[in-house]
Amino acid sequence: MLALAGGVGGSKLASGLADIAGDGLAVIVNTADDFDHLGLRICPDLDTVTYALAGIANPQTGWGIVDETWSCLDRLAALGGDDWFRLGDKDLATHILRTHYLRQGETLTAVTERFRQRLRIAPAIFPMTDQPVRTLVRTAQGELGFQHYFVKLRCEVPVLGFLFQGIEAATIPAPLEAQLSPVLHDLIVICPSNPFVSVDPILSVPHLRERLLAMRRPVVAVSPIIGGAAVKGPAAKMIRELAMPVSPVSIARHYRGLIHGIVIDEVDAAHATEVEKLGIHVRTAETLMTGKERQRKLAETCIRFGEAIACTLQ
Ligand code: FO1
Q1: Model-level pTM greater than 0.85?
Q2: Structural domain containing residue 122
């Protein structure tokens, strides 16, 4: 099973899928949120997914490590350093070591694999590319770096669109390339991550979307929009600012041509007919993942849904 994931929502479903599939799961993670901060390479989505799969994620924020302390950040602020991006003491170890290995010439794929092994995580975790790709948010104030927009400006500036700087030169890392095979994976799940800034960068890596389609396996997305709002993050606000209706119909339209089915929340059941008119199968479920049990249940729903779709693809 292959999963495409960005931040917190994606990491939760990835955890549920991992509970069922173990090392049969491979997660492809967005790296366009990555940035260099205080001399360190920060890869928020890779870390969010890694910490979730390792069972050490901070349950309050969804990002960072559980039982975090902030001594370093406090000292940094006392010395006049930037503290708008909150790097916890434990989390810092990841950034320091990753930056060290990258400077020694290792690829991000190799460093991610090192951490996966040390943390005894069963599923494979792949950055979408080893080349630097950076999301720029187009606004009336100009183009803003993603973390500047997301954390520093708290997504308050209206968005006009997005650019993935460096995407043309990005390539699929060889270990990920080897995974894009129907022999290894019978289902592709697009996790309930932000479609514009978490999933689109992955799908924009040259040839990746085509390689997924060529697998001819069921592709199932989970809507990150529930009852006209996003569970976390700015997805709903972005959809509104891009002049689309805030409903799972917009998510289905966005992924049209790639997905065969979409899981929408029970509260959105009234939208099912409109989605089906797009030629996309619909399954309704409880998609709010409050707790391990619900993560697993939603993962099971995706798997069963994929199996039902597979019968129609023969
Ligand atoms: N998100 C915040 O809203 N504020 C932060 O200070 C913050 C720090 C941070 C540090 C490490 C890390 O891995 C993630 C962090 N995030 C923070 C989350 C991150 O900005 C977003 O979750 C993703 O980039 C969006 O998917």
Answers
A1: yes
A2: 2-141+143-152+161-313
Farthest CA pair distance, the chain = 63
For residue 48, the ligand 1 atom closest to its alpha carbon is 13
The ligand 1 site (C-beta within 6 Å) comprises 6-8, 33, 42, 44-45, 47-48, 63-64, 85-87, 91, 147, 150-151, 198
Q: What is the CATH number of the domain that holds 56?
A: 3.40.50.10680
* Atom of ligand 1 minimally distant from the CA of 146: 24
Which of 11, 147, 151 gets mutated to test ligand 1 (max ligand atoms within 8 A of its CB)? 151
* Cβ atoms of 49 and 27 closer than 8 Å: yes
The per-residue pLDDT for range 143-167, each reduced to its tens digit, is 999 999 999 999 999 999 999 999 9
Residue 223 contacts residue 265 (beta carbons within 8 Å) = yes
Please give the Cα distance from 308 to 302 (Å, whole number): 10
The CA distance from 35 to 44, in Å, is 9
Specify the number of domains making up the chain.
1
pLDDT of the residue at 231: 86
Q: How far apart are CA 31 and CA 132, in angstroms?
A: 8
Q: Are strands 40-42 and 35-37 parallel, antiparallel or unpaired?
A: antiparallel
Separation of CA 63 and ligand 1 centre (Å): 6
Please give, one letter per residue, the 3-state secondary structure of 153-171: CCCCCCCCEEEEECHHHCC
